[in-house]
Design brief:
Layout: H1 4-13, H2 17-39, H3 42-58, H4 70-93, H5 113-130, H6 134-144, H7 150-157, H8 161-180
Length: about 180
């Protein structure tokens, strides 16, 4: 038997609305802060959150536990949809996203075992990011939280594209090493 999250997704695939409600209650505290940190607007974040969970309901039959946990599945969808929203807004307004307001992006209290574990993991990753050299941390944060491509990052920080790619690769390698410990 799989985890509680896998069971909920299996039941959602069978059309169980109660399972969907429980899935939402369990994982929305995990993904909402991520979405908010990326889109930086509460209204947009709420819209993206709704889209993400509607998508999980519709595509529950495609979930494959061999490819990752339900947490990874929903977080990946949330991150992708949030970045899509940022890019869409940017194209419409032709302006960059405002600087991150840490007070707005503060995570609400986590509920549920898996979400609490993910919050702990998030703090470990945040701590590891903090130990990276500034230039590596900057490009990774712009890519992950800002939704920028490597080319956009190079333009933003006024560095050659090759430098940005190298910083990202080195930063990811260091993060990987720190996370193994």
């Amino acid at each position: 038997m799989g985890t509680m999250g896998e069971e909920l997704v299996r039941r959602m695939a069978a059309g169980d609305g109660d399972a969907f409600a429980r899935f939402y209650d369990r994982y929305s505290p995990l993904v909402y802060p991520l979405i908010l940190r990326i889109v930086r607007d509460r209204t947009d974040a709420a819209d993206v959150l709704q889209d993400v969970f509607w998508e999980t309901w519709r595509s529950a039959t495609t979930y494959d536990p061999a490819r990752g946990t339900p947490e990874a599945w929903v977080v990946t969808r949330a991150r992708t949809r949030a970045i899509d929203r940022v890019r869409s807004v940017r194209r419409r307004s032709e302006t960059f996203v405002a600087p991150l307001d840490e007070a707005i992006a503060a995570a609400p209290s986590e509920t549920g075992g898996d979400a609490a574990d993910r919050a702990s993991d998030r703090s470990v990753v945040t701590g590891a990011l903090g130990r990276l050299p500034g230039p590596q941390r900057e490009v990774l944060e712009l890519a992950y939280y800002g939704g920028l491509t490597q080319t956009e990052i190079a333009e933003r920080i006024k560095q050659p594209l090759g430098t940005v790619k190298t910083r990202m690769r080195l930063g990811l390698e260091r993060l990987r090493e720190m996370m193994k410990r």
